[in-house]
Amino acid sequence: MTSPRAVAPATFTRRLATVFEMIKIEHTLFALPFALLGMVLAADGWPTGPTLGWIVVAMVGARSAAMAFNRLVDRQIDAANPRTQGRAIPAGQLTPTFVALFVLASSALLVVAAWQLNPLALALSPVALGVLLLYSYSKRFTSLCHLILGLALAGAPLGAWIAVRGDLTVTPVCLGAAVLCWVAGFDILYALQDQEFDRHSGLHSIPARWGTKGALWISAALHAVMLGLLALLPSIYPPGLGIGYWVGWLGCLLLLSYQHWIVRPHDLSRLDAAFFTANGVLSLWLFVATSVDVGLIA
């Protein structure tokens, strides 16, 4: 007979794997390249190995805490929404207590990483956590919840810059504002799936307030502002950026145009392609192109 002590590690491992599936750990790809971009610009090249490592640890901790907390506080909403009833907590695959402990552990990981980086990073880590966790409640009281999510992910390049230099200048603020607009724009597209449910449940979103066409226009406007901010970046970044960066910018323009071309008012069937594929490629493409531009990639 197998003892309970022998079974527990396997049970914990399965639960942890379910958490990682629930929070879509692979979608860290959205924000991580922008964090690395902020890091590369701050260092004008690669920083030291430990700095790079702790930035990645901080990113994983921050995103894991935010996503797990969102699933935790939204568990009753998810249970009522046919699209999300199969998620781990409403489906009974995970207990709220286990997920809450995971949130605490992930938050601690972010704080420890910030402590290893520099005093300013550590001092601002509670602020970063506050914004990350606030998003999960924001759709209960404002249709601007998409901008709060954008602000949370804007912390990626801002935090990475602070991690390298221990200060804050106009360059990372511009990049962070671009990320804010990018994330808010694509989150509005993603929220199109739930606009009727949100209306009937008293939840707030741009699609629920302004309808599909209005939401598409607002999303497109935010993405246009993002492109404008990215176009401004070379003129405010002291070492300057050249042709490689502009190739990256052009790729962003094409990928954003693709998103808005395939998502139509009466056809939302390709939202996954717009949300996951195009946005994952966009952030990685801009980072690689900029890395080529500053000579990190031969």
Question: Could you write a compact summary of the structure shown?
Answer:
This protein is mainly alpha-helical and about 300 residues long. The protein is about 75% helix and about 0% strand. The radius of gyration is 20 Å and the shape is globular.
Topology:
Blueprint: H1 4-22, H2 32-43, H3 49-73, H4 75-80, H5 96-117, H6 119-138, H7 145-165, H8 170-191, H9 195-201, H10 206-236, H11 243-262, H12 271-293
Plain-language structure description:
The protein has helices spanning 4-22, 32-43, 49-73, 75-80, 96-117, 119-138, 145-165, 170-191, 195-201, 206-236, 243-262, 271-293. With 298 residues, it is mainly alpha-helical. It has one domain (11-293): UbiA prenyltransferase (Tetracycline Repressor, domain 2, Orthogonal Bundle), CATH 1.10.357.140. It is globular and about 50 Å long.
Quick tags:
298 residues, mainly alpha, Tetracycline Repressor, domain 2, globular
Largest sheet: none
CATH topology: Tetracycline Repressor, domain 2
CATH architecture: Orthogonal Bundle
CATH class: Mainly Alpha
- In percent, how much strand structure appears in the residues? under 5%
